[in-house]
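Second attempt. The first submission of PUM-HD domain-containing protein had a stray character pasted in from the spreadsheet, which I only caught after the job came back as garbage. Lesson logged: always re-copy from the clean sequence file. Corrected sequence (650 aa) follows.
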Amino acid sequence: MIGRLIRNFLNGQHIICKVQHVQAVHVACLHQCIKKKVCSAAVLSWGARMASSSSNRPSNRSKLSDEYSNNSGSQLLDAYHNNRADNLQLADLGKHAVAFALDYQGSRFIEQKLERASPAVKAQLMDELRGHVLKLAKQMYGSHVIRAALKSLINEISAHVTSLSLHKYGCWVIQRVLELCTEQQKRPVLEQLHDNVHTLVTDPYGNFVIQHAIEHGLPEDRERIVHILKDDIMKYAQHKFASNVIDKCLICGTADQKKALIDNVCVGGPETLQNVRQLMADEFGTFVIQKFFEYGTEDQKARLVDALRGHVLTLALQIYGCPVIQKALKSVDKTSQMEIIEELTPRACVIRCIKDRYGMHVMNTIFELIEPEQLQFVVDAIITSPSDSVASFSLHEYGCWVIQLVLKHCTEQQKRPVFEKLLENVLSLVTDQYGNFVIQHVIEHGLPEDRERIVRSLQENVLTLATDKYGCFVIEHVIKHGRAEDRERIAHSLHENLFTLVTDPHGNYVIQNMIEHGLPEDRERIVRSLKGDILKNAHHKGICSVIEKCFVFGTTKQRNALIDQVCADNGSGNPPLLQMMKHPFANDAVLKMHDLTDSAHRDKMMFAIEEHIPALIRLKARQLEHQSLTKRSALVDKRKKSNNNELLDD
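This time the job returned cleanly.
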C-alpha cells in the first residue's frame, strides 16, 4: 500500500487528478483516516481505483467506425458497439454480415470467429457476402475480411484481378491469393496478371502484386515476367516501382533469368557502357546496379567494372553513385578492387573524397576492405596536403571521420605522424564538435604516452572542459575507457569542483559517468557531498539526475544515507523530501529512491510526508482549478476572436 501511494502520489499528476475527480468524498475520507490513524496509502489507493473505474470506462462507439457503419442502419451492429449483443456468434449475423465487414470492430469480430467456425457457418457467411466482394475488397476493413475468407471467394475475385491489383486495398487480397491458394486456384489469377505486366509493374500497388507472382509463382511465371522486363530494361530500371520488380527477379530468379536481365544492360559496345553509367547515377537505377554486382557472374561484374573506368571519382562524389562504388568494392575480386581504388589514389582525389559527404563513405569502405599497408596513399595525402593540415581535417564535418579511420586501421608507423600533429592541438580539438571525436580515438587507439599527454592537458583544464558542450564528451571518455591512474587524476580534479559540475547542464553528465564507471570511493565522496548545500538545491535537474545515479549504482549504505538526509528536518520544520515532491525533476529522484530502497526506508519516507498529505491535496486542487480556469479563458478568447472574424467577413 505504501508503495502504491509513493509511486502514484509523488509522480505528480496521476493520483491527485484521480482524487480530484471525486474530490468531496475522497478529501473527507482522508481527514477521517488521519484522525483515526488509518493508513493513508490504503485510502489513496482506493480513491485511485474508484476514479480510474469512472474515467477509463469504454466509450459507447468505436472512434474508428467508418462511414458505412454509421449510416448502415444495422441494429445488430449498433447493439454490438454498445455491448448489448451478448454471446454473439458468426451464424447470428445473417443480413448484417456486410455491415459488420465494413466496420472496424465488426471486421475484427468476423476475422476472429472465422478462425474457429465450422464449414457450414463459413459457407453461410460467404453466401451473405456474395455480390459485395468488389466493394469489400476496396474498403479498408472489408479487405481484411476478404483476405480471411479468401478461399471461399476465389471465383468472384478472379473476375476482377487487374482492377483489384491496382487498388490500394485490393492489391492485398490478390497478394494473399498468390501466397495461400493452390496452384489450381491461383492459375487464372496469374494468367490475368501476365496479360497486364506492363501496367502493373509501374503502378504503386500493382508492382507488389507482380513481386508476389515472382516469389510465389512457378518458374515459368518468372520466365514470362523476366522476358517482358528485359526487352525494355533501361526504362524499367529507372522507374520508381518497376525497379523493385527487377530487384525481386534477381533475388528469386534462376541463374539464366538473372543472366538475361544483366546481359541486356552489360553486353555490347560503348553505348552499353554509357547505359550502365546512366543507371549508376540514377535515383532508382543505382539499386538495380547494386543488385547486378550482388547477383552477377564474374564476367558480368568485370563488364560493370569496365563501365566504372575513368568515372570512379565522379560517381564516388554523387549521392547515387557512391553506394554503387561501395557495392562494387565489396563484390569484385581483389584485382578489380585495386583497379577501382587506383583511380582514387592521387592526392587531389583523396582530399576531395575526405572532405565530401559521399566520398567519405567510399573512403570508409576502402579502409574496411584492404590491408593497412595499402592505405599509405591516404596517410600521405593527409600529411602532405598543401592546403589542409591534420588539425583542419579533424575539425572538418567529414574529414574528422577519415582521421578516425586512420587511427583505427593503420599501423603504428603510419599513424605516428598523425598522432604528433593531433597532440599539438589537443585543447582546440577537444572543444570542437568534430575534433572531440578524434581526440577520443587517440585515447582509445594511441600509445600510453599519447594518453598521458592528453590526460595532462585535460587535468590542467578540467573544469573548463567538463562544462563545455563538446569537451565533456572527452572527459567522460577518459572516465569510461582510460587507465585506472588516468581516471584517478581526472576524478581528483572533478571532486574539487563538484557543486559547480552537478549544477551545470554538461558537467552533471560527467559526474553521472563518474558515479557509473568510477571507483567505489568516488561514489562515496559524491554521496557525502550531496548532503548540505547540494541537497538544498535538489530541485535542480542536474542534481536530481546525479541523485538517481547514486541510487542506481550506489551501495545500500549510500542509498540509506541519502534517504536519511531527505527525511530529516531541514530546520524549517519540514523535511527536504517535501520540497522535492513539489518539483518535477526532484519528483523523479524520489520515485527512484522509493523503487530501490528497502521496506524500512520506504516506511520512513511515508512517515515523513504523511501529515502533509491533506495540504498537498489542497495545493494540487488549487493548481488544477487554476489550469482549468486558464483553459476556459483561452477557449472563450478563441471563440470571441472567431466570432469577430465572422462579423468582419459578413
